[in-house]
């Protein structure tokens, strides 16, 4: 169909096309005008970088707060945040009573739009029918998200602190066990430890010097005892000789007294000689007694020196045994000290990390209020964001007109009526001799005469409208 034919067809059916277009427009306008007004409120939140830096305090929460912007949409649309907002602000009461909280959460996800702005900010938009509620929800959701995020971060920091505390207790027990083992080992091998090796060597040297001294004393005492033994024999001979001489002289004096008077010169001489011999005998006996005591003393001294030498030899053997065992215990003690140092180093590291974890936990708590900053709070919208009624009416008018034109076109294409000579010539192969004009609705018979040479004639009643 050409454009002229289409326009003619639409004009012939202008009443039908107009009725259909009007009906569809009225239906579309009713739909547009009866749709509820939806208001939108937006809030812009900026995430402040954490301070102080990692070079000052080692963080226990590995994720930077700025990195959460990558998943901020998923976290804002998470069930805990939305459910808390629904319960706190009593949103979707009918939906909650009919289908439960899960359906209300799904509906709220549809009403929320989250868009990241730059590297440190995001925009949250909430749509609803009540402008006051829309603004309240838009302003409250970032606060709930901030509370949930900080709660998670503080839980992570507290968990890290508890983990370091448990590890510190375990490592402290390990260090105490190693200290107890080392202390018991040192007590069990006291005197044979590596740090006592120099003392043992000095002790051995001292004992050796004392042994040498005692050996010299022993040789001197033994020499003295030999001298005393020789002197004893001589003293015993002198005392015995003097005693025998005194005994003989006493008998002679007794015989002389029987012969002579006491004043006799011979008697006097013999008495003097007897007194001298008696004195000499007593002196010899005194010397012999002193020598006997000296021999006893020297013998006792020799015995004591020999005992001291035996004791010193035992001490020297003990010191030597300690020195011999020192390398063996040194190796075992070195292994124990190595394991102890490893455990102690780990313990000190865990203690240091625990202190840092506690500081980081305190900083997380203190910096909680400054991590999320609302730079553009949501205001109460004055006009609905959708639907756009003018655009809706325009679209309804265009759709109605299009459907009307489409209906007229389809009806025209399904109509087999012939309305002018051109259509007759196009659709009938027989030659057209004449065309009767429109007779204001009257029906006439039109006879198409064949051309010369045709055997048959065709009579075709045609209604011309």
Automatic annotation (TrEMBL):
Biased composition (Basic and acidic residues): 224-244
Compartment(s): Cell membrane
Source taxon at top rank: Bacteria
Transmembrane regions: 390-411
Keywords: Cell membrane, Coiled coil, Membrane, Transmembrane, Transmembrane helix
Keyword Transmembrane helix part of the UniProt annotation: yes
Residue span(s) of domain Polysaccharide chain length determinant N-terminal: 5-88
UniProt-listed InterPro entries: Bact_polysacc_biosynth/exp, LPS_length_determ_N
Primary site of residence: membrane
Recorded coiled-coil stretches: 267-322
Pfam families: Wzz
Membrane topology recorded in Swiss-Prot or TrEMBL: Multi-pass membrane protein
Disordered: annotated segments: 224-248
Protein name per its UniProtKB record: Polysaccharide chain length determinant N-terminal domain-containing protein
Taxonomic lineage: Bacteria, Pseudomonadati, Myxococcota, Myxococcia, Myxococcales
């Amino acid at each position: 169909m050409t454009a002229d034919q289409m326009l003619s067809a639409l004009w012939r059916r202008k009443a039908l096309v107009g009725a259909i277009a009007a009906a569809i427009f009225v239906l579309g306008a009713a739909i547009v005008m009866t749709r509820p007004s939806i208001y939108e409120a937006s809030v812009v939140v900026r995430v402040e970088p954490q301070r102080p830096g990692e070079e000052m305090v080692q963080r226990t929460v590995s994720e930077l707060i700025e990195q959460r912007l990558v998943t901020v949409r998923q976290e804002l649309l998470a069930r805990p945040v939305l459910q808390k907002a629904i319960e706190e602000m009593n949103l979707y009461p009918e939906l909650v009573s009919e289908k439960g909280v899960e359906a209300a959460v799904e509906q709220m996800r549809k009403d929320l739009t989250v868009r990241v702005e730059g590297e440190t900010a995001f925009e949250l938009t909430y749509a609803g029918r009540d402008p006051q509620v829309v603004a309240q929800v838009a302003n409250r959701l970032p606060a709930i998200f901030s509370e949930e995020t900080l709660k998670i971060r503080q839980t992570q920091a507290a968990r890290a602190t508890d983990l370091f505390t448990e590890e510190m207790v375990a490592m402290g027990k390990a260090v105490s066990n190693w200290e107890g083992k080392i202390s018991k080992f040192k007590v069990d091998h006291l005197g044979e430890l590596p740090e006592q090796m120099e003392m043992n060597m000095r002790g051995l040297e001292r004992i050796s010097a004392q042994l040498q001294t005692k050996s010299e004393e022993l040789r001197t005492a033994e020499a003295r005892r030999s001298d005393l033994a020789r002197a004893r024999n001589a003293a015993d001979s002198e005392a015995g000789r003097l005693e025998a001489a005194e005994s003989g002289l006493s008998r002679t004096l007794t015989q002389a007294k029987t012969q002579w008077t006491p004043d006799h010169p011979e008697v006097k001489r013999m008495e003097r000689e007897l007194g001298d011999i008696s004195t000499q005998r007593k002196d010899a006996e005194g010397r012999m007694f002193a020598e006997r005591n000296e021999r006893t003393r020297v013998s006792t001294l020799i015995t004591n020196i020999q005992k001291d030498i035996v004791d010193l030899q035992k001490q020297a053997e003990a010191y030597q045994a300690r020195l011999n065992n020192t390398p063996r215990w040194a190796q075992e003690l070195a292994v124990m000290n190595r394991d102890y140092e490893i455990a102690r180093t780990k313990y000190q590291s865990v203690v240091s990390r625990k202190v840092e974890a506690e500081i980081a936990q305190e900083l997380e708590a203190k910096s909680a209020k400054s991590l999320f900053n609302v730079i553009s709070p949501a205001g109460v919208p004055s006009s609905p964001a959708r639907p756009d009624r003018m655009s809706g009416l325009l679209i309804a008018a265009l759709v109605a007109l299009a459907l009307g034109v489409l209906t007229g076109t389809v009806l025209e294409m399904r109509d087999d009526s012939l309305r002018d000579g051109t259509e007759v010539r196009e659709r009938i192969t027989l030659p057209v001799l004449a065309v009767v004009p429109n007779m204001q609705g009257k029906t006439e018979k039109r006879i198409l005469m064949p051309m010369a040479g045709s055997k048959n004639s065709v009579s075709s009643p045609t209604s011309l409208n």
